[in-house]
Amino acid sequence: MTRVFSGVKPTGHLTLGNYLGAMRRWADVDQHQAEALFCIVDLHALTVDHDPARVRRLSRQAATLLLAAGLDPDLCTVFVQSHVDEHARLSYLLECVATDGEMRRMIQYKEKAGREQARGGSVRLSLLTYPVLMAADILAYGADEVPVGDDQVQHVELTRDLAVRFNQRYGLTFVVPRATRPAVAARVMNLQEPLSKMGKSDDTGPGIVYLLDEPDAVRKKVLRAVTDSGREVVYDREARPGVANLLEILAACTGGNPSDLSGVYESYGALKKDTAEAVVEVLRPVQERHKELCADPGFVEGVLRDGAERARAMARPTVDAAYRAIGLLPAG
Ligand code: TYM
């Protein structure tokens, strides 16, 4: 059976981008068709300036939202990265296979390190090695597929390179995984800055739809989305990024196709109105279920405890095999 692994980082409240780009497919498709693991990658949240209490809170909230989005602990494994030591153990071995140059070429590293330096801050070493930990997440479970949005594809490509290199040097140890992306909404853009990704860690609130936004807040954000000069509703990501983003969001929420939908609208106003309502409807069941789950925190804790146990049992044999293959003396 195909094995699937993916993760979400608790550095901010989860967004419509996270949902349409990744989480919805995990719930609707992956958990039904594959042996699937979904991880709240809290160690990754420590790679940038962070408040310990907030990371803990966001980790719990992310777990609750994954379940609210439809992940079913009877069908898949949901767990927290730091509860399974194998991630950090394997990450070190992969650091001995990856190169400094490779890390510095990663787009997300360049962007985040650049932003940090521009603010006069310092860049944590773990930000540089971030993709290696991500590779460890994936390779520890022998995942065949990694369902992600566009922004994570480069990291999965690096994971493939590291797996192949390790296997060539030390013998066949890892499955070489591949990224899978959604057909639409693989890169949902910020509603106020349609040339930038809608990212949960950014601070431009009005351009970001959060999964827990009230319906009226969602409507306001979508209705105020920056569109392009011009009037015709055409689907052109280069020339009309704002309108293209709305068409993609609408298509992803209604199961349509952005090009076909562009022919339906004669004004930006009507497109925004329908998009706002479509988003509200998509988020409604998630928010309802989230409310129910918040009333039962013991349930979420239990899911994470069982999930970590299952994940540990799956990861340990592969990570132990990697320790032997690379030349470390078994503890006996
Ligand atoms: P993170 O937490 O930034 O995002 C979680 C998932 O949501 C997708 N995503 C988006 N998709 C479309 N449009 C957007 N605006 C948008 N924003 C986010 C991301 O592509 C991702 O699939 N490094 C990862 C977490 C991670 C991971 C892993 C993922 C750590 N280890 C192993 C897969 C496998 C991250 O920061 O995702």
From TrEMBL:
ATP binds at K9, P10, T11, G17, N18, G149, D150, D151, V188, K197, M198, G199, K200, S201. It holds the Pfam family tRNA-synt_1b. Its EC number is 6.1.1.2. L-tryptophan binds at D137. It catalyses: tRNA(Trp) + L-tryptophan + ATP = L-tryptophyl-tRNA(Trp) + AMP + diphosphate + H(+). It is an enzyme of class 6 (ligase). Keywords: Aminoacyl-tRNA synthetase, ATP-binding, Cytoplasm, Ligase, Nucleotide-binding, Protein biosynthesis. The keyword tRNA processing does not apply. Gene3D superfamilies: HUPs, Tyrosyl-Transfer RNA Synthetase. InterPro entries: aa-tRNA-synth_I_CS, aa-tRNA-synth_Ic, Rossmann-like_a/b/a_fold, Trp-tRNA-ligase, Trp-tRNA-ligase_bac-type, Trp-tRNA_synthetase. A motif ('KMSKS' region) lies at residues 197-201. GO terms for molecular function: ligase activity. The keyword ATP-binding applies. It is found in: Cytoplasm. It comes from the Bacteria. CDD domains: TrpRS_core. A motif ('HIGH' region) lies at residues 10-18. NCBIfam families: trpS. Catalyzes the attachment of tryptophan to tRNA(Trp). Belongs to the class-I aminoacyl-tRNA synthetase family. Homodimer. This is Tryptophan--tRNA ligase. The gene is trpS_2.
